[in-house]
Amino acid sequence: MGCTDSSKIHAIEMIARQIRRDAIWMSTKAGCGHLAPALSVADIVAVLYGGIMRHDPKNPAWPQRDRFILSKGHGCLALYSVLSQMGYFDRRLLGGFCSEYGTMLAGHPERSLPGVEANTGSLGHGIALGLGMALGARLDGLDYLVFVLVGDGELEEGSNWEAAMAAARHEAGNLVVIVDRNGLQLGGFTEKISRLEPLDQKWQAFGWNVKTVNGHDIPELMATIASVRHAQAQPTVVIAHTVKGKGLEIAENKVEWHYKALTREQYNALDPELRLEVL
């Protein structure tokens, strides 16, 4: 890896670290939020915004921009952090997460916030929305990519597979779905609730290009996702194996942390590397 590549990887690592610090701080300050789901996608979101996607914070409606849909909208703490780091809005707004009436930083993303492409949170709709955007690029003669980040538990929704069939049928090669494969959902482990495996073979059977990565290995994520821009005609799915609650030991791989925040005492006892300030 060359010097420039190393510098880029380091910069993305810093974005991911800040995402985790912001997410922990926002949820603790508000006393609510889906903390663990945000921590599991921090590295993925950092790679997309810091190294892969074409986007312009000064012109969020730029027609040539790549689109990102956080279908698992409950992971919005990560999205809010990265959008603020990129300059889409003033970082001081993070302090209003779920704590002010009319805040633009609600419990799920809304398009009133600069940089958010779609209202999400009702699970199972992101792939269909992304397919519509991807086909829109074809109609408009544009070459942007559409990235959709879905939860693994979310894949229990049949609407995802209807959209997957349609995407393959229409050869939507500019559509990229990333699965946050942390193995946990609201009620427990995915394989004990509604078995998804063999997940890679399911996507292959639906006619998709399938890639599997370590969702916390930034160089691997970069190389894998970057290769998609010049991919074949078929849509691509990246199955990213992650740890729910990654980076916060008390929350890692714990189902009860799907929707939970630290107490202020727990927050203040954290390693300073994980917090922004004393609450």
Characterize the biggest β-sheet.
5 strands, parallel
Termini separation comes to 41 Å
Strand order of the largest sheet: 1-2-3-7-6
Structural class: alpha/beta
The H/E string reads: HHHEHHEHEEEHHEHEH
CATH superfamily: Thiamin diphosphate (ThDP)-binding fold, Pyr/PP domains
CATH class equals Alpha Beta
For this structure, the quaternary state is single chain
Total number of domains: 1
What would you say the CATH architecture is? 3-Layer(aba) Sandwich
As residue ranges, the low-confidence spans are none
**In percent, how much strand structure appears in the residues?**
5-15%
Mean of residue pLDDT values:
95
Radius of gyration: 18 Å
Number of strands: 7
What global shape is seen?
Answer: globular
Helical coverage, percent range: 25-40%
Briefly note the CATH topology name: Rossmann fold
Describe the protein's architecture and organization.
This protein is an alpha/beta fold and about 280 residues long. The chain has a single domain (about 5-275), classed as Rossmann fold. About 40% of the residues lie in helices and about 10% in strands. It has helices at about 5-30, 35-40, 40-50, 75-85, 125-140, 160-170, 190-195, 200-205, 220-225, 265-270; strands at about 65-70, 145-150, 175-180, 185, 190, 210-215, 235-240. The strands form two sheets. Strands 1-2-3-7-6 form a five-stranded parallel beta sheet, sandwiched between helices. Strands 4-5 form a two-stranded antiparallel ribbon. Helix 3 (about 40-50) runs parallel beside helix 4 and helix 3 packs across helix 9 (about 220-225). The longest helix is centred in the N-terminal third of the chain and has 28 residues, at about 5-30. The chain is globular and about 55 Å long. It starts with a helix and ends in an 11-residue tail after the last helix.
